[in-house]
Amino acid sequence: MEDVLYLQQKLFRALGVPLSRMMGESGFNMGRSAEITRDEVRFNKFIDRLRHRFSTVFLDILKTQVILKGIMSEDDWNRINQEITFTFNNDSYFAELKDNDILRERLDIIAAVTPYIGRFFSNDYVRKFFLKQSEEDILEIDAQINREMQKQMEAQEMQQYQQMMSGEQPEEEEQEQQPEEPQ
Questions:
Q1: How many structural domains is the chain composed of?
Q2: Is residue 59 part of a domain?
Q3: Cβ neighbours for 28, distance < 8 A, ≥ 6 positions apart
Q4: CA separation for the pair 143, 132 (Å, rounded)
Q5: CA nearest neighbour of 32 among 109, 103, 93, 106
Q6: 40 found inside a domain
Q7: CA-to-CA dists, residue 78 to 51, 58, 68, 106, 177, angstroms
Q8: Which domain holds residue 45?
Q9: Is residue 5 part of a domain?
């Protein structure tokens, strides 16, 4: 039985699949991104290489199909084939964990640097170098913040207007207008 297990492990290793995915006892841990092993990262790179190879195969098959069917000429194909891309599904959970960890680390840095903003660092420097925001990102985020602040101000003004129209007065004014009790 040991020989069979040895051959099985060699086969898994030759396929490039991490042993943690194949062995039933250990299972694959999808906890935190820090717990993902080096084998998983290597396997992810292997899958990316396979996807790239399959993309070229798909393009060759598509070229043959459209030329033989008379849909387009070979010159037309040569003009458009660089614009064709293939989108494969990714391991979204792993990517989300990795992105969340990166964001958490950046926010920790921002929390540590905040007392020094305006003294040693500018807001632009912090946004560009610590948060890795591009000029376009900064402009878009600033525009979103301004829109949200505008909506919030409009909601407050609408609430004040509704209170005024319903005859409600702020608490301070109500206390002033109450008649004094006779002594």
A1: 1
A2: yes
A3: 18, 20, 21
A4: 18
A5: 93
A6: yes
A7: 22, 15, 15, 44, 84
A8: 10-88
A9: no
**What is the total residue count of the chain?**
183
Ramachandran class of 19: left when φ > 0, alpha when ψ lies in -120 to 50, beta otherwise: alpha
Q: Could you read off the pLDDT of 7-33 as tens digits, one per residue?
A: 888 887 787 777 666 665 544 455 555
For 79-100, write each residue's pLDDT tens digit: 998 899 888 887 666 677 778 8
Nearest alpha-carbon partner for 127 in 149, 148, 110 = 110
Q: Is residue 61 in some structural domain? A: yes
